[in-house]
Design a protein that fits this description.
Number of helices: 8
Helix content: 25-40%
CATH class of the largest domain: Alpha Beta
CATH topology of the largest domain: Aspartate Aminotransferase, domain 2
Number of strands: 10
Shape: globular
Radius of gyration: 20 Å
CATH superfamily of the largest domain: Type I PLP-dependent aspartate aminotransferase-like (Major domain)
Structural class: alpha+beta
Number of domains: 2
Strand order of the largest sheet: 1-2-5-6
Length: 263
């Protein structure tokens, strides 16, 4: 199924995508913006489907006052260094209110072991978060709310400085139901590649994600899907610099460079 202009799944298409083989729904809260979880959970309940929330980019984001990863049967966060809360390497966490599932997950992360290294309850993996990475996360978490607040300030600076430019689409403004944390600040332009080259010459690093949509990766065999919005967005997206240490002056330098491209 396709996405909407907020980069998240189009909830109006969910029911059409459900078949007899469907076991669950995996909403992805992209760029720190929550999916419409009320509609998703209603549909899942109606069809008796599990919901696995991918909140890798949405730690701290909420929908109607409730945090991402707290709606579904499970929710996941990523601690990859470039995420909202990153450690010194790969890492992540799975959240659930199901005690039985939690025990299964603990077993899967540690070679099938939970209470004793001598007892293996199932086949598992070596996916433990090591103590050093955990200690870094514990330290950084003390600053997390301040970092989110700073990201939101930078996003507001970009919103004000870039609004009204012809051919430039800013991230959709969220209503009161959403609290966005801006893992990424993603703009769209039909002249994306030219704009990216202009910003590079100006000394500004940007990120182009999903240049080739997943369903167009030949080796995956997903070419039968018709996803026009996904393809359009993949051709237009460009992520501007956004991180807590970015100063107002630096954000304004980015704005000036983008505006100079459009004049």
């Amino acid at each position: 199924m396709d996405i909407k202009d907020d980069f998240n799944m189009d909830v109006d298409q969910i029911e059409k995508a459900i078949t007899k083989k469907t076991k669950g729904i995996i909403p992805v809260h992209l760029n720190g913006h929550a999916c419409q979880m009320d509609r998703i959970m209603e549909t899942a309940a109606r069809y008796n489907l599990k919901v696995i929330e991918d909140a890798a980019q949405a730690l701290g984001a909420t929908f109607r006052g409730r945090r991402c990863a707290s709606f579904g049967h499970t929710g996941i966060f990523s601690f990859y260094p470039a995420k909202m809360l990153g450690t010194a390497g790969d890492g992540g966490i799975v959240c659930t209110n199901d005690d039985g599932l939690a025990r299964k997950l603990r077993a899967l992360r540690d070679n099938g072991r939970v209470d004793s290294v001598e007892v293996i309850e199932c086949f598992g993996y070596c996916s433990r978060l090591d103590n050093l990475h955990a200690a870094l996360l514990d330290m950084k978490f003390k600053y997390f709310e301040k970092w989110v607040a700073r990201r939101r300030v930078i996003a507001e600076i970009y919103d004000k400085g870039l609004s009204g430019l012809p051919g430039l689409i800013l991230p959709p403004r969220s209503g009161s139901a959403f609290f966005d944390v801006y893992q990424n600040y993603v703009i769209r332009s039909a002249r994306r590649d030219e704009l990216a080259a202009h910003l590079k010459v100006s000394g500004i690093e940007v990120l182009i994600s999903w240049r080739t949509p997943l369903h167009r990766q030949k080796s995956l065999g997903l070419g039968h899907f018709n996803l026009p919005m996904t393809e359009r967005i993949s051709a237009e997206v460009l992520s501007l610099p956004i991180y807590p240490e970015l100063t107002d002056d630096e954000a304004n330098m980015v704005i000036e460079a983008v505006r100079s491209f459009h004049t």
